[in-house]
Amino acid sequence: MSNHLKDETSPYLLQHAENPVDWYPWGSAAFEKAKKEDKPVFLSIGYSTCHWCHVMAHESFEDGKTAGILNKYFVSIKVDREERPDIDSVYMSVCQAFTGSGGWPMSIFMTWDKKPFFVGTYFPVHSRYGMPGFPDLLDKVAERWRKDREGLMRSADQIIAHLQRSGSGSRDAGDEDLPGKAVRIFAENFDSICGGFGDAPKFPVPHNLLFLMLYAEKNKDFGTSRESFTDKSRDPLHMVEKTLMQMRKGGIFDHIGYGFSRYSTDQYFLAPHFEKMLYDNALMIMAYASAYQMTRTSFYLDTAGKTAQYVLREMTSLDGGFYSAQDADSEGIEGKYYTFTLEEIIALLGKERGTWFADTFDITAEGNFEGFNIPNLLKSNALNADFDKDIQKLYDYRRGRTRLHLDDKILLSWNSLMIAAMSMLYRVSHEEKYLQAARSAQIFIEKKMSRGLCLFTSWRDGKVSENSFLDDYAFYIAALTELYHSTLDINYLTKAERFCREALSRFADDENGGFFLSDRNSTELFMNPKESYDGAVPSGNSVMAYNLVRLYQLTQKEKYRELAVRQLQYMSSQAREYPAGYSMFLLAKLLYEDPPEQIVVVLKQDSDLESIKKQLPLLANVTMASESREYPLLNDSTTFYVCKGHTCLAPANSLGNV
Hints:
Elements: H1 11-15, E1 23-25, H2 28-37, E2 41-46, H3 51-61, H4 64-73, E3 75-80, H5 85-99, E4 106-110, E5 116-120, H6 134-147, H7 149-166, H8 178-189, H9 206-219, H10 236-249, E6 263-264, E7 272-273, E8 276-277, H11 278-295, H12 298-314, E9 325-326, E10 329-330, E11 333-334, H13 342-349, H14 351-360, H15 388-401, E12 406-407, E13 410-411, H16 412-429, H17 432-448, E14 450-451, E15 454-455, E16 458-460, E17 463-464, H18 470-487, H19 490-507, H20 540-555, H21 558-575, H22 583-593, E18 598-602, H23 609-613, E19 621-625, E20 639-644, E21 647-648
Parallel strand pairs: 1-3, 2-3, 18-19
Antiparallel strand pairs: 2-4, 4-5, 6-7, 8-9, 9-12, 10-11, 13-16, 14-15, 16-17, 18-20, 20-21
């Protein structure tokens, strides 16, 4: 029998629509029911490709006995964190304050007026791992609700007061060298043997690598970065290249179907948590494309291209939008889809080719992962071996062997990241298919996920969400700006400015600086967070800092300079204690303090444009101008006016060494 989730569009909510738990979606009906029946609310937050969400669902939410307890004593609400990042952010803050950590599934017990009094993540059905069994926990919470509600309310009030205090005000960053401090933190945590930072599990966090690359580039000439490291293994560019190399060789990269998994469970990047997220792959494309632009090492371009191939092949809708994620589990087993036995390889490829492939990709009879094998190149380093035909055979076989759950909702912020990534990849590869993919996704957003300047967070089956958040606007502005850089079509820049004005109107905290996650007048939750820390994706505040800097440099409008300075100052105050957690902001700060080349192009004829785009530096701020007294043509040919390093060069008919 279906519950109240049956008419939702979110794949995560629909996964629970047949549970015996009487789930409600987030909304007034659930909270009014809880108030009327004098019951606490149980809020469960997750997403459709979350492994431990599946485990808790199978153990508890599909269990009739546990469902009976929930239905008798609680009103139960399910939320897809990807559709409601505001709810997820607020209660994740509660979870981290309450337990010292966070994650999904998130389990919150709260009042009908949304005040949390007990929080956790995954709870097993029986007591283990030092955690109470979920049915026992439900009984205890229900008993305290009946007998000691005043104590629960004190707990709720204390949590809320703590979070509201910690979320107010700002700190003065002074004149600290935040980028330099961040680089030193990364160097201290760098794994010089296996790449990456810190111990297992290892998350890619490509925006950290983007910042380190720009820092290395900006400081290569004056000895404050690369030459200052006595241990050259902790040189910023070396840390990036080592990490990119190890990730590409490891099992976190899918050597058969391409694309990157969420993170590595070990220090070697061998055994991933196998789910694939759109945002990870977008950021990875950016990192590898940038590394290629900086080093001209073809291996980086190959990796970016293969990752894009995965996205275009498996994560792109017929209408051009990009899907959200693929599950880690198949047939109830995490990673089963991705692993092989030696016998399978030999049977598919034949003894000679199969043995060569197995030796190259670490395929053995014993296995390298729970008796099976994750293909990887960590031992052979055979990055240039030609196995394209063999890989296609294995890919086709794997696709026919079993299927992965696909979260096919389309999220505006993540699509914007992929639009930006495809635009950047086009600029370094000059392959038109990437620009076409970026344009198609932008058209999808414009036609199906926006109404005027109003954006909608998600789309599925022809239905859009009712909400939008800072990240939707910030990431979309960045996507439009990247499309402008790739096409030099002024319409994209004009749209970016319009959406920037809307973001300022809706989300800016004019009094204290920064941007709220939800509309600044929102009162739906007990707090409206201003997220500044860069997690798996850059924060909306970091991306807005980047947007304002880029819009100022592209338009030279004073209002953007003033807004950029204000946002950089706000973010500096947030980043002071741990700047390594604010890489996207630091990247924006570097771009503001040491701007990329400013290039004005005066075309002799329109047909020159395509060849010109292939010459432009990746980060250059390029504007088009008509021939005039201020910008005359040189030698009656297309002319470049270039300013670099606070110096303007003489007009030229080529970009030369710019």
